[in-house]
C-alpha cells in the first residue's frame, strides 16, 4: 500500500492569507500547507481519495495524480468538501460515475449542497455516485472500516484501510478519544492523526491528545496532520517520538 499526504494544513492553510506564517519558518518548504486530504493506493493500483478539500486541483497536479477509483468523506465542513468540483476531470474517460461514500448526515449535506455532482444536469453526466458507508466493505480492492468521532458538537468519520496485511488509519477533526477509535486503529501500521496545535482546542485534537491516541492504539508509525501556523515542521520533528513525525504536502509512504 501507499499513502500520499495531499494536504497537511488546517482550514486556513499555512501561511494564512496576509502571508502570516505564525511560528512556522517560511524557508522550510514543508511548512507550506494546503487543506487536509490523503490518497490511499493499494498494491494493485486502486486509489481512494479521502475528502475533496478546497486545494484539491493544486494537490492533484503537484502529485501527478490523474485517476482515482473511489472517494470517501470524513464530514461536510468546507475545507474538506469545497473542492468537490475538481472531481469533474477525474470523471472524464470513465464509463460510470466515481463511487463515493460517507456517513448518513454527511451524505445528506453533500447532496443538499452539491446536488449536480450526484445527479447531473443540463446534459452533464453524474460525476459521483454517493452511498452510505454502511453499505460498503471494500473500495477499489482495499478494505474500508470506519467509526464516528466527536468533532466538538458535530461528528466526523475515522477510516481504516487494509490490504495484504498492511493498514493505514486516518483520524482528522476529532476532539476526544473514544474506545471505538482505539479499537478501529488497533496496531495500525500507519496512523495519520489530527494535531492542530499544542494548546487544547474545542473541536480538534492538540498534540498531547494526538500522541495519546497513537500510544493507545499501538500504531507502528504516526503522521501528524491538520497542522496550524504554530506547528513548525522542524521544531515539531525534534519534540516528537521517533515513530511520530509531522506530515507535509506531497509526503509519500510505502508500506
UniProtKB/TrEMBL annotation:
Mind telling me which InterPro entries this protein's record contains? Metallo-B-lactamas, RibonucZ/Hydroxyglut_hydro
Sorted keywords for this record are: Hydrolase
Q: Where is the Metallo-beta-lactamase domain?
A: 47-226
UniProt entry tagged with the keyword Plastid: no
Annotated SUPFAM superfamilies: Metallo-hydrolase/oxidoreductase
A Pfam family: Lactamase_B_2
One GO MF term: hydrolase activity
CDD domains the UniProt entry points to = metallo-hydrolase-like_MBL-fold
Instruction: Tell me what this protein is called.
Output: MBL fold metallo-hydrolase
Species of origin reads Novosphingobium fuchskuhlense
Amino acid at each position: 500500500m501507499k499513502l500520499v499526504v495531499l494536504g497537511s494544513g488546517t482550514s486556513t492553510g499555512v501561511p494564512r492569507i496576509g502571508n502570516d506564517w505564525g511560528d512556522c519558518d517560511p524557508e522550510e518548504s514543508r511548512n507550506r500547507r494546503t487543506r487536509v486530504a490523503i490518497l490511499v493506493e493499494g498494491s494493485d493500483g486502486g486509489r481512494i481519495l479521502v475528502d475533496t478539500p478546497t486545494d484539491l486541483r493544486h494537490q492533484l497536479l503537484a502529485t501527478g495524480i490523474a485517476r482515482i477509483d473511489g472517494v470517501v468523506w470524513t464530514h461536510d465542513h468546507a475545507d474538506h468538501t469545497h473542492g468537490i468540483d475538481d472531481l469533474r476531470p477525474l470523471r472524464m474517460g470513465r464509463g460510470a460515475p466515481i463511487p463515493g461514500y460517507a456517513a448518513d448526515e454527511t451524505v445528506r449535506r453533500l447532496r443538499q449542497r452539491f446536488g449536480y455532482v450526484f445527479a447531473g444536469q443540463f446534459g452533464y453526466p453524474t460525476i459521483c455516485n454517493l452511498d452510505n458507508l454502511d453499505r460498503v466493505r471494500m473500495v477499489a480492492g482495499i478494505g474500508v472500516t470506519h467509526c464516528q468521532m466527536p468533532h466538538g458538537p458535530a461528528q466526523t468519520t475515522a477510516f481504516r484501510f487494509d490490504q495484504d496485511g498492511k493498514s493505514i488509519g486516518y483520524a482528522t477533526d476529532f476532539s476526544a478519544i473514544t474506545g471505538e477509535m482505539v479499537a478501529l486503529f488497533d496496531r495500525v501500521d500507519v496512523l495519520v492523526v489530527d494535531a492542530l496545535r499544542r494548546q487544547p482546542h474545542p473541536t480538534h485534537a492538540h498534540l498531547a491528545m494526538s500522541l495519546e491516541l497513537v500510544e493507545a492504539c499501538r500504531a507502528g508509525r504516526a503522521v501528524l496532520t491538520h497542522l496550524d501556523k504554530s506547528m513548525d515542521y522542524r521544531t515539531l520533528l525534534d519534540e516528537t517520538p521517533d515513530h511520530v513525525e509531522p506530515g507535509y504536502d506531497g509526503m509519500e509512504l510505502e508500506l
